[in-house]
Amino acid sequence: MQFMLLFSRQGKLRLQKWYVPLSDKEKKKITRELVQTVLARKPKMCSFLEWRDLKIVYKRYASLYFCCATEGQDNELITLEIIHRYVELLDKYFGSVCELDIIFNFEKAYFILDEFLLGGEAQETSKKNVLKAIEQADLLQENEMGLFYALLAAVSTLN
Amino acid sequence: MALKIVKGSIDRMFDKNLQDLVRGIRNHKEDEAKYISTCIDEIKQELKQDNIAVKANAVCKLTYLQMLGYDVSWAAFNIVEVMSSSKFTYKRIGYLAASQCFHESTDVIMLTTNQIRKDLSSPNQYDTGVALTGLSCFVTPDLARDLANDIMTLMSHTKPYIRKKAVLIMYKVFLKYPESLRPAFPRLKEKLEDPDPGVQSAAVNVICELARRNPKNYLSLAPLFFKLMTSSTNNWVLIKIIKLFGALTPLEPRLGKKLIEPLTNLIHRIYLFFSQILHHLSAITLVCFSWLIAFLFFITVLISLSSGMPNHSASIQLCVQKLRILIEDSDQNLKYLGLLAMSKILKTHPKSVQSHKDLILQCLDDKDESIRLRALDLLYGMVSKKNLMEIVKKLMLHVDKAEGTTYRDELLTKIIDICSQSNYQYITNFEWYISILVELTRLEGTRHGHLIASQMLDVAIRVKAIRVFAVAQMATLLDNAHMLTGNTQRNGICEVLYAAAWICGEFSEHLENPMETLEAMLRPKVATLPGHIQAVYVQNAAKLFATVLKSQEGNTDSTTAQEASQLMIDRLPLFVQSANLEVQERASCILQLVKYIQKLQQKDVEVSEEVCALFAGELNPVAPKAQKKVPIPDGLDLDAWINEPPSESESEDEQPKAIFSKEEPKHSRPRHTEVDEKELARRREARKQEQANNPFYIKASPSSQKVYQETPGVEHIPVVQIDLSVPLKVPGLPMSDQYVKLEEERRQKERAEKKKKDKKKRKEKRSGRGKKHDSGPESEEDITPAHMVDIVTEEMPENALPSDDDERDPADPHKALDIDLDKPLADSEKLPVRSHRAAEVLKSPAEDEEGENVSSLEPKKKSSKEKREKKKDKDKDRKVKMLFESGLSETWERRLISVMLTFIFLFYSFDRKAYDIQGNLQDGSQVVVSVIFENKCDSFLKSMEFNVLDSLNSKLQRPEGSGPHDSLTIPFQLPPGVSNEARFVFTVQSIIMPQKLKGTLTFIVKNEESSTHEKLDFKLHFTCTSYLITTPCYSDAFAKLLESGDLKSSSIRLEGVNMPFHHLLARICFHHHFSVVERIDSCASMYSRSIQGHHVCLLVKISSQTVSVDAKCDEPTLLGNVLDEIKQTFSQC
Predict the structure, then answer these.
(1) Bias category Basic residues: which stretches (chain B) (predicted)?
(2) Tens digits of per-residue pLDDT, B227-255?
(3) In what order do the strands lie in the sheet with A64-70?
């Protein structure tokens, strides 16, 4: 997979993950063109799109479009499954995810994606394992921040 | 007070976090840009703070802004700072920001190498994980080279979580640093059999990606994959493997037969998997198609397997029929997938797909562009001589209807692709094709003008019979040029005029009315065309002029010829003024020529022949690759200098002259007019002679010199039609439809004639092969082209070099990965370890000592415990290398096991930043030893355990809870011929003395019959220089250090040093980790620092082979030992 974009129906980018190194300018150009092309398509049309020399697989969940670009030979259905798994993962993590969850916790959405895909390849096909890894990393973070929260409480009592 | 500071920083931290920023942006919809610019100012303030939490918060916000499209590249260094935080919370944010914002040209990436390396070897698996994830997004060739070895080590990490990530990222590393593929491949292969399914799946992923690009190098893995395919339970892995076999089987047809059985066993599982996906996809009803999808998937794989089994066409036929159901379904996704599968089948079984032409054409009307494009792709493969005209006619209708230029352009290229494929194989009537091309010029706003133009040129040049017709069409096109150029928006199409002008000029002898065309080409409007087209216009006007003169030859009334000259003289000055140099040059040249001719004409001199001679000769098509294929004759060295290369200074002097000579006055140009005919003939003769002797000259092939019969086909040209009601059509051009009709009539006539003949034949021969003609409409072979068309092949130089490798794009990164993986690994190929210690570390001593070892090992006593230790003292190298061989029990029949250990002392030297003293002290007591284990026997080595007898001073760090004498388990096994690296941490208290530690390595040697426990003794040598870290030092700081008076001094003398001073310095720098502070003539000051912060200063002087080293250090014992080691280094060279 070359990249993954999440964008809203209004064309606002919600998440982007690039597995090929491109300059910001190129990324912007590709994003702009692709978002326009996908949004222009009608709901009944197929989820596949040939664009430049890439194959775009996209799917809409509620108000969000999930859009992946793969090279020609990759299986379309598998790419759709990757999108679906990611949505399921988000759903499990946030508990019936909505667009706002992704906007406000965008770094979490990235962390989940990074546990699921690496370098554009699916690294873990078991949903359970992905969530376990994320939970443990979060736990580690909480432990680290424990002291900090204690300080915070102290400060608030001071006030 | 302290609490106040804390409070202040916490308050600031919560000035605005990410959530606030997002909320703020949503609340400032109208003046978002303004709001964000104030936010960025705040972030800049936050980044200036020392508090890492504040910085991390700022970087997190920046990552969000970057996604919104704001430039945050200015904060790259701050991102690196956050990345290097010791807290996972911040590190995570830092790496996320880096993976989002960094790309290959981000220069701070260079600074991250050591940080990443440190994180990769962190004891916390999540630190390592986050570093690997980040690296996968921004790995550069440099990073790949420097970190390849670290990542390779991680592939054998104890935690599957890390192994999995390390394996996947190796693919990115291979792409950036192809040299790493061979050394890393054995371990990658090993991972295919990893106990953890995740790691296994990652390894399959990587190898499949590699193999898909260069399948032939991976054929030897087929048995392994075969095993995996039958044993794996992971559907994702299965699908990858099946696809891989799709790529491998064309290379090894025997594989195909073997695969059929396991594949049919798998079909049910794949079916369930796909039905699950389809279920997610949209509706439950789709699930009933899932068997079809699974079936299709297999069929497409089977097709690639089917080269070995010809009797498969029945099932293919069935499959295509089922596909039809899929394509006819209302669900667009299924339709698309059906078409896609169809196109795969088309490649191998075109016949079975062709009967579904109606369905494909129907799909062209679909609203969805993806579906239309798929259908177009299919059409390309479906055409035959019989249906080409019909299909193209249909496509032309679509061109007219199409909305949006992209799709129309796509249609246009497809039409041209379809018609021109395999050397115009399917075109039976070129007049029709030319008229199609002319019709295509009507397209508004197409980008493909040049494509049409090149087709026109190609056809006119290569199909000689069509020239008359083509020239007539092109003349009309030129006459109506205003239709094409009228709108400046349509400039893409005016490229066509380039072709039109050239064809009319070059083949002007076929023009009916050259004078009219000449006039059309010299209209003032032409000056608005792009320069390169004008240039062609001018040049070809001259050709036309020559033709006009020739046609008027012998005509007593010379007015037409004189009119032509006058026309040229009147119109050409317009072009002489052109801003385009090419146009200007050609125009002025031709203008002078015509003026001269006019003079001659007035004197009634016959000039036409001489003028025509200017453009005499046939132009043959030359293959685009012809130049590349010219063989280099023996003895010709293209890289050799013809003249001695001029020296730098000379060329500088020469420059002004060269500029001057370029500015030669122009009027000397039209010199060829002065050449008389005799001279011309003589020169032509000389040139012919030269060409005959010149091996590089591309001679006309005999075929192109054939005389082509003029066919009477031109009679078909219908009466000129002027259709004013349709303004877009170029008036006067015949429509391609008419050709379709004519062609049909002609075919019918032919068929009728044939039938007659057949009947006759059948009468003569009762049992002829008449059946074939009876059963259906005409077959392919029956259609004869309208004219005897001879398509001239493109020319290639004589004895052109055959090469098939020129098909691949040289820019393809996968080309570099086309590496033979079965060849044994050479020592020079090993991955660099720790780049800042030169790569030489890797040249293991195996190579130069191997022969000796083998011979000395042969006579051996029975006891397997009896070890022989052989120590090659290579102390001139700064690192200690030791070579051990294990003895062997006689039952092994002298099979050698030799485990080679290379000990490389490396230190953590990340903490170069002097401000963090605590961390420095902590690191200062630790030494990391990297050991490369190489299995040189042909048995499997496992359960390796490493143990060292601790001394008072140095201790091996063991995991918590284990005793001081427990050994460490090495987390990998070694198959024969494989090497791997393990790292051990030692705690060292005092570093002032060199030390030796005794240790043992125990392992189990396993072969087919038995497994034996073996033991190896070794010694680890910690030299004093190995505690030194190369640290740069400025001369003023150095001077202060010397002045401080805290340092004790000592000195040595080295006699008979026979090397240049800079070599000497380099040697000290390399072997003893010093850096040069300052060098004046034959005297240099050098500096280094120990891991515990001792300063070591050297003053090195050389005078006639004697080197004196005056040294100062705050620890005299350390200094003495270092100097001894330096002495030893030089005594050995």
Answers:
(1) 756-772, 862-871
(2) 888 888 788 888 888 888 877 877 777 77
(3) A13-18, A3-8, A64-70, A54-61, A48-51
pLDDT digits (tens, 9 = 90+) for B665-720: 444 444 444 456 666 677 777 766 666 665 555 444 444 443 344 444 444 444 44
| Beta carbons of B278 and A47 less than 8 Å apart | no
- Cβ neighbour number for residue B108 with a 10 Å cutoff: 16
Cα-based angle A72, B168, B968 (whole degrees, multiple of 5) = 170
Distance CA B879, CA B881 (A): 6
Highest mean predicted confidence (pLDDT) among B650-654, B674-678, B789-793, B816-820 = B816-820
| The Cα angle at residue B208 between residues B202 and B210, in degrees rounded to 5 | 105
**Cβ–Cβ < 8 Å for B178, B821:** no
Say what the pLDDT of residue B825 is: 67
Find chain B residues with C-beta within 8 A of A140's C-beta: 88, 124, 126
Write the CB contacts of B57 (distance below 8 Å, at least 6 apart in sequence). Answer: B13, B17, B18, B46
* Mean predicted lDDT score pLDDT of chain A: 85
B165, B340, B369: residue with CB nearest A118: B165
In the block, which residue shows the tokens 């106040």?
A: B4
Contact assessment for residue B854 and residue B896, using Cβ atoms and an 8 Å cutoff: yes
**Amino acid A5: pLDDT:** 93
Best CA proximity match to B156, nearest among B193, B113, B131, B206: B193
Q: Which of B226-230, B738-742, B951-955 has the lowest mean pLDDT?
A: B738-742
Candidate from A19, A73, A111 with C-beta closest to B212: A73
For B1045, left (φ over 0), alpha (ψ -120 to 50), or beta?
Answer: left
Q: What are phi and psi of A32, to 5 degrees?
A: -60, -50
pLDDT tops 50 at residue A10: yes
Q: Which domain holds residue A152?
A: 3-158
Under an 8 A CB cutoff, do B126 and A137 touch? yes
CA-wise closest residue to B165 among B202, B206, B115? B202
CB neighbourhood size of B175 (10 A):
22
Q: Which two tokens stand for residue B52?
A: 């890492």
Q: Both tokens of residue B398?
A: 């679509």
User: B10, A155: Cβ pair inside 8 Å?
Assistant: yes
Chain A positions in Cβ-Cβ contact with residue B73 (cut-off 8 Å) = 24
The pLDDT of residue B293: 63
Structure tokens at B996: 């030796």
Q: Is the dihedral of CA B174, B179, B181, B187 positive or negative?
A: negative
Which of B10, B281, B371 is closest, CB to CB, to A151?
B10
Name the nearest CA neighbour of A131 among A112, A114, A117, A118.
Answer: A112
Cβ contact B340–A140 (<8 Å): no
A123: closest chain B residue by CA:
B202
Q: What percent of chain B lies above the pLDDT cut of 70?
A: 70
In chain B, which residue's Cα lies nearest the Cα of A52? B406
**Do A35 and A13 form a contact (C-beta atoms < 8 A)?**
yes
Whether B332 and A44 lie within 8 Å, measured CB to CB: yes
CA distance A118 to chain B (A): 6
Distance CA B648, CA B238 (A): 63
Average pLDDT over all residues of chain B: 73
The domain total for chain A is 1
Bridge partners (DSSP) listed for residue B946 = B968, B1001
- The tokens for B288 are 């009933």
Q: Best residue in A38, A57, A77, A140 to probe B by mutation, most B CBs within 10 Å?
A: A77
Query: Which helix (H) or strand (E) is A54 found in, with range?
Result: strand A54-61
* CATH number of the domain bearing residue A90: 3.30.450.60
DSSP-H helix ranges across B364-448? 369-382, 388-401, 405-424, 430-440
In this predicted model, which residue has the larger pLDDT, B669 or B339?
Answer: B339
pLDDT computed for residue B899 by the predictor: 29
